[in-house]
Amino acid sequence: MATSAVHGVRLGLVGAVIVASFGFALAPVAFAEPGDRSTQTPEILGGPNVVVLPELSIRVADGTARRELVQGQRVGATCQFSFEFEADAGNTVPEMASVVAVDPDSCRAEIQRGMPTSLPSDLQVAPGTEEGDGGQAVDTTADQRGGNHSKGNTQRRTDREVAAQAVGLKSTFWTIWEDPAKAVINEVRTSVRSHEKNGQISNADCTWYWQRLGQTGWQRDAGFHDFACTSKANKAKSVDSEHFFNDDFLGPVCSGRVRTHVYYVNNAATVTLNKMKGSIKYTWAEGGCQSWLGYGTLFEPGAFYSN
User: Fold this and answer.
1) Percent of the chain having pLDDT more than 90?
2) Which one of 9, 79, 90, 209 is most buried, by most CB atoms within 10 A?
């Protein structure tokens, strides 16, 4: 019997260690069998109700793939898993993480991590895709000794003003969701670049970006969007939250099912004085044929996307 998936992932990188928080619904459904929608094969996770998630178009490069079993914690009707990823200053090697399969009975997941074969920025945007970004926001809070502040207080600076300051570290983090045809149905990216002065972070440049595949019915809930660019003396962060939904996902295959949702909560790129990080507090799909979706997270230390 198959099990429906409500996926949640929270990711970051510690040199070569991933971070993710993954939620998985425990209630079974009857429209597909485990593994029907994926070419992935679990190597170290077994069980009668194991759900295999669809493989992504971006894959872990041969020779770098590592499989792990992660023991989750049962929280209400979900299993939640946590991992961590970050990179030291000077490290520019990208990393990715994806969930191969989940066993809701034992609350364990099989994870694959390693270097990606490509980055989302390398992929050609599919026809019918709508893109959006917030341009470049600059947080001057640390300069003003004022602590954190919201997106409403961010301001723009010219390229000359930005270049006039010493650049610190840079970080970019993506979360992507794909359908069984390996088309990116929606994606969120955040990027941050810090500026240092007198051994502290004086301010930060931040960008965010999203896309949705409108051609197959995916829509964006603009009211859910929440972006912030913040900096303190020892940390800078670019963070965004988004919600996408689809009333017609997979057409007749999912006829009679409720709306399919995908949520991104706090997709963040972070830098400190000596480290770069990427994380997402939660990402999950629910409703409709959500268990037909695959997803992954990618981290590129030392990179800043100015949109």
Assistant:
1) 35
2) 9
pTM of the entire predicted model: 0.79
pLDDT at res. 288? 78
* Average pLDDT of the chain to the nearest whole number: 76
Please report, for the chain, the start and end positions of each structural domain, with discontinuous segments joined by +. 13-301
Q: What is the pLDDT of residue 17?
A: 34
Mean pLDDT of 92-103: 89
pLDDT value, residue 75: 62
